[in-house]
Write a structure and sequence with these properties.
Layout: E1 20-21, E2 27-28, H1 30-47, H2 54-61, H3 65-71, H4 75-86, H5 101-109, H6 117-131, H7 135-162, H8 172-175, H9 178-189, H10 196-211
Antiparallel strand pairs: 1-2
């Protein structure tokens, strides 16, 4: 594109409100980075990775294509930055704690992260479509989203086991992967994004059924 890739162009640049210098020594507006990455996330959610274009992202962000290419010279590097930009599930730091396993599990499903369940599933469907095209994107999505969710489910299940809600013997490590694995399958291969009801069914008829045999 006639511009040299910037160093570390596949990660989110800049701190909160901080301007960074680009490869040409010019100061870089981190707030513009955030606008572009949010626009890229929205385009990805709407169109999927294959149909996502730099032109569409630039138009939604109100920026020039050259501005995007200076920061992220490829679509893959842009989406890698989007994955970093969305952060990690907040429940990684603060789990639901109602004293009831089912309520805690559904609170995880109902998290407000990325706009709540419906909005989040649209966005993650777009990111998952990107993972199908790039091992680097698949690895980034696993580390940023899938692994934290799996750990959150494991922690909720372990806490429930400690207070006697789960009948032994139960393999908590395996059960913790059930909902994230189903979600990944639905997002990758489903004709439409899963719904909140899909997750409630998975919690009730798969996860809790395995935790409480005979009830």
């Amino acid at each position: 594109m006639g511009t040299a890739p910037e160093e570390h162009g596949d990660t989110l640049h800049g701190g909160r409100g901080e301007a960074r210098r680009g490869s040409g020594g010019r100061r870089r507006d981190a707030s513009l980075d955030a606008v572009i990455l949010s626009a890229a996330y929205d385009v990805l959610a709407d169109a999927g990775y294959e149909d996502m274009t730099i032109s569409a992202v630039a138009a939604r962000a109100g920026a020039g294509k050259a501005t995007l290419y200076r920061r992220w010279p490829t679509k893959e590097s842009l989406v890698l930055a989007v994955v970093a930009h969305i952060g990690r599930p907040p429940e990684e730091q603060e789990l639901p704690d109602t004293g009831d396993l089912r309520t805690d599990l559904l609170a995880l499903v109902d998290s407000a992260w990325l706009g709540g369940p419906a909005s989040r599933l649209r966005g993650l469907r777009g990111l998952t479509s990107a993972a199908l095209h790039s091992p680097r994107l698949a690895d980034a999505l696993r580390r940023q989203v899938v692994d934290p969710y799996t750990e959150a489910y494991r922690a909720l299940l372990q806490r429930a086991a400690d207070r006697g809600e789960i009948a032994p013997p139960t393999d908590i490590a395996v059960l913790a992967e059930v909902v994230p694995a189903l979600a990944t399958h639905w997002l990758m291969f489903g004709a439409t994004p899963p719904t909140r009801a899909s997750f409630e069914t998975a919690v009730d008829q798969v996860l809790l059924a395995a935790c409480r045999p005979g009830r």
